[in-house]
Amino acid sequence: MWVTKIYIYRGFLVLFSFIGFSQNTAIPDPNFEQALINLGYDSAPINGFVSTTNISGITYLDISVKNISDLTGIEAFVSLTFLDCSNNLLTNLNVSQNTNLTQLFCYDNQLTNLNVTNLTKLNILWCDNNGLNNLNVSQNTLLISLVCNSNQLTNLDVSKNINLNVFVCENNQLTTIDITKNTKLNKFQCGNNLLSNLNVSQNINIGFLSCEQNQLTTLDTKTNTALGTLNCSFNNLSELDFSKNSNLTTLNCSNNQLCRLNVKNGNNSNGSVNFSGNLNLNCVVVDNPSSTHTNWLPDGFSNYVSKQDQCNNFVNVDTLNSVATNTSYSLPTLTYGNYFTQSGGNGTPLFAGNIITTSQTIYIYNESVCATNESTFSVLITTEDYYIPKYFTPNNDGVHDVWKVQDFNNTIKTIAIFDRYGKLLKYLPTNMEWNGNFNGQLLASSDYWYIITLNTGKTIKGHFTLKR
User: pLDDT-derived band of residue 100, with 50, 70 and 90 as boundaries?
Assistant: First the structure.
């Protein structure tokens, strides 16, 4: 009987120990347990476990910056909706049992793997500054904020996360990213990846876009009418048009390969723009070219225009007056541009020193990396003793600024110029010219008449046009 009682007692002890053990959760990391003690969920001294009853009902747990390297035991926190374990030393994180989580912050650790497929209630996931090379968020359809920058991700599918409002995936190794299904996006940052294409046409609500330091060659923002801030610097963009982005106030498109930049969106006075480092960009289309643009870079840039085709004016090209001769004409040396027989650098190339013996129009064409410019002049080979121009344009551009009769054989004695009412405006001796002024006043665009008296006494009458 005594032996029987001893065995029964020992069995009771074993059973009690088993029950007691099952009511505790192992916490092998002393820093984790100390954090729980500090929060009042455990009591000193540190003994490697915590009462499961104390933690199973906890919904909010912030154990950030505690030097924790092992989060074993977190699986018993089955009621957690909020977990912040950021800024620790974690290399592994098992949250597969924490299915009630809506917010998970595990950034600034050393995680190489993170499985959140069981967390179907998750709204916020910040896992940046780790070593993740894979992240599956296809089951987290309620996500509104995903921050996974500064990892080693080469692929990321967010097509199922249609509720995303904030998405940050900077500083990874992504070659593609499809956000066409994320139509609720307000903030998107994908800088410092390997993206060669970015389609934001469906993201009409996006207000903040940062895609700097990629390999983008095109970026179309015409549908992003809510866009207020854009950083697309350090890409390979050749053309940007923000004429539809009337809310854009902060733009950095520096260090690209821009040839065209249109920021004429009606909001320039409120904007800060940086387009420095685009070495071939010779002009920028803006709201008001005469504004000072004090908040814009590069400093001192002045080639602002109101239309894109005005950019051609900033490509230097030589201009020559039309020529009339009764012999031949030798093409002079050019500083800017080359001679061609057709517009746009087409036709037959001509060169300085070529002798022109037939009447024709000659084009001087010059091109930069981004734009072109062209001027023309005519060569008239005539058998007449003189040449009378049919028009002139006194606008100080160096071409046709004066009306001048050319007398090849000294046959002209005098020239008189009249207005349409017969009033004498100018009396010229031979080979003199008229600039379109009368008594110091600019005369209006109109037709004017001349009487040329030859040395023989014969007179020649006709008219020409003044164009301003």
Answer: very high
Triad 166, 163, 142: Cα angle to 5°: 105
Instruction: Name which residue leads in pLDDT, 310 or 188.
Output: 188
Q: Tell me how far apart the 2 most distant CA atoms of the chain are, in Å.
A: 163
Enter the DSSP assignment of 398.
S
- 73 burial class (0-12, 13-18, 19+ CB within 10 angstroms)? buried
pLDDT of res. 15: 34
Residue type, 274: N
How far is it, in rounded angstroms, from Cα 185 to Cα 226?
11
Is the pLDDT reported for residue 180 higher than 90? yes
Report pLDDT digits (tens) over 184-212. 999 999 999 999 999 999 999 999 999 99
Residue 364 tokens read as 């001087």
Distance CA 48, CA 97 (A): 20
CA dist 121 and 79 (Å) reads: 12
Q: pLDDT tens, 238-268? A: 999 999 999 999 999 999 999 999 999 999 9
For residue 447, the one-letter residue type is D
For residues 98 and 74, the answer to whether their CB atoms sit within 8 Å is yes
Q: Among 144, 210, 142, 128, which Cα is nearest to 177's?
A: 210
Pure H helices in 23-109: 30-38, 52-55
Sequence-distant (6+) residues with CB within 8 A of 279 are none
Reduce the DSSP state of residue 326 to 3 states and report it.
coil
Q: What is the DSSP string of 368-390?
A: -SS-EEEEEEEEEE-SSSEE--S
Radius of gyration of the chain (CA): 40
Q: Could you read off the pLDDT of 410-424 as tens digits, one per residue?
A: 899 999 999 999 999
Q: Which helix (H) or strand (E) holds 425?
A: strand 424-429
Cβ-based burial of 193 (10 A; exposed 0-12, middle 13-18, buried ≥19)? buried
The DSSP result for 119-158, as a single string, is -TT--EEE--SS--S----TT-TT-SEEE--SS--S----
Cα atoms found within 13 Å of the Cα of residue 355, Cβ hemisphere only = 3
